[in-house]
Amino acid sequence: GSWTIQDWTRQDRKQTPTNSAEMSKVVGNDTKALKKGDPEPPLAPGKARIYSMRFCPWAERAVLYAAAKGIEVEVVNINLVNKPEWYYNKHPQGKVPAFEKDGKIVIESGIIPEYLDGLYPESAILPTDPYLRAQQRILLDQVAPITTAFYGLFAIYREKLEGEARDAKIKTVEDAVDGIEKLLKEDYFGGSSAGFVDWLIFPFFERLALLSSPLSLPSLFPSSRWPALSSWFGRISAHPAAAAAVQPADAHLGFIKSFVVGGAPDYDSGL
Amino acid sequence: DNQTMSTIVGNNTKALKKGDPEPPLVPGVARIYGMRFCPWAERVVLYAAAKGMNVEIVNINLMNKPEWYYNKQPQGRVPAFEKDGKIVVESAIIPEYLDALYPDSSILPTDPYLRAKQKILLEQITPITSAFYGLSSIIRDNLEGEARDEKIKEAGAIIDGIEKLLTDEYFGGSTTGYVDWMILPFFERLTHLSTVLSLPSPFPCSSSSSRWPSLSSWFTRISSHSPSLFFQPMNLHVEFFKSFVGGNPDYDIGI
């Protein structure tokens, strides 16, 4: 069935409607963000770690993908305005996500998933067939406009945009989503089950849904304007991997509010 | 380079336009859709050459595209790669596909970590494309004085950053790799712009006062590799660009 706004703003979204029996092997997603002066937590050989921030859509891609693969991984959250000095050894600009295991560090939210499939081939999500693999990568590029368009919604909130300025930002989002709706031909972008593109695009649609009500947009997304995407969204939101990565709406909205007013964002919102 | 010399045909054929029929593609034959002066399409030609592949090139008139070309790439852009009815687009994705089709001549590492590192390195060097567009805009928009200097300064800073990333003979290590071929078209065009704009820091520059000694010697080194045979001559690039900024690109210049 389709996912309504009421479902989406449920506090207890971690209790997914479907199978929650699978205990998430992703630990640490709800830990406080480490900041300058905090020591680097030691990482034992053989253990996998994602450096993240609980509300960053790019870092969420890595957490979702790891959860979807069912791999054991710990999440270490980073305070992005007051970074631990050691974090620059993981990512040269101190951005999240980064992935670390056995002394090898891989960065970039579009590259980490492929690396995870290389390290853990038995749970590969990207197709091994070269043509199908290429099509998933091409599809990711084709859905990319939503990853920039959604920042316009923050701008509305932050700058209290009204009238034409506000409408222009919303139109950019609508145009992007119109394009993506046409690309969704099956239950998932990956075909009959969630794939690479599904996990990498989900965080952005999650945020569209989240921002609908603070922006007084009762039905930005999901919406009957986009029937395929709206029902996709309900389907993927119910996936156990979404439960592992997604933050409750009130904590997330608390973060967004702190983020748009300026000053130090509340990276530990809800903890 | 791969031991096998590549056979690439069609690099200097006239650009097909609206009304021109689609040339039939024989099963088993690999085809690249390109445009002789497009750096993105050139990435794929260089990669195919470096792999020692046999491939045919079909050039496309990008202002007046054949109708059938939209079946290859939905926005009608180049490059596209086609073989046995399967089409792959995107200049950074096609090389990976070529390595999978022709694994014996793989250029990207198979080791997942080394492969990821090459992709991350390409991301870090991608600003070279905006340096190229910034310098090109000096010509396109007839920039002078401060506006011109600003573009040159920005481009210089980007290239400074890339100079630091070159820690070996090539971006691929001791031999040419994925990153080398992906970025070469932009450095090739930097050499043209360096001459045309009389840039204060010339590229390439082999003197001891060179601002970018590693990149300069990298460029000279890689230009002696056989894929560089597919560079169009600088004078044709300059003429093409003039026709492009004039609003009437001459895709067939020189042929």
Overview of this structure, please?
The complex is a heterodimer of chains A (271) and B (255). Helix content of chain A is 44%, strand content 7%. With 271 residues, chain A is of the alpha/beta class. Chain A has 2 domains: 17-125, Glutaredoxin; 130-245, Glutathione S-transferase Yfyf (Class Pi), Chain A, domain 2 (Up-down Bundle), CATH 1.20.1050.10. Chain A has a 5-stranded mixed beta sheet with strand order 1-3-2-4-5, with helices on one face. In chain A, a hairpin with a 2-residue loop joins strand 4 (98-101) and strand 5. In chain A, helix 4 (130-143) packs parallel to helix 8. Chain A starts with a helix and ends in an 11-residue tail after the last helix. By secondary structure, chain B is α/β, with parallel strands linked by helices. Chain B folds into 2 domains: 7-105, Glutaredoxin; 112-224, Up-down Bundle (Glutathione S-transferase Yfyf (Class Pi), Chain A, domain 2). Chain B is built from 8 helices and 5 strands, in the order E-E-H-E-E-E-H-H-H-H-H-H-H. Chain B has a 5-stranded mixed beta sheet with strand order 1-3-2-4-5, covered by helices on one side. The relative contact order of chain B is 0.14. The chains are: A alpha/beta (271), B alpha/beta (255).
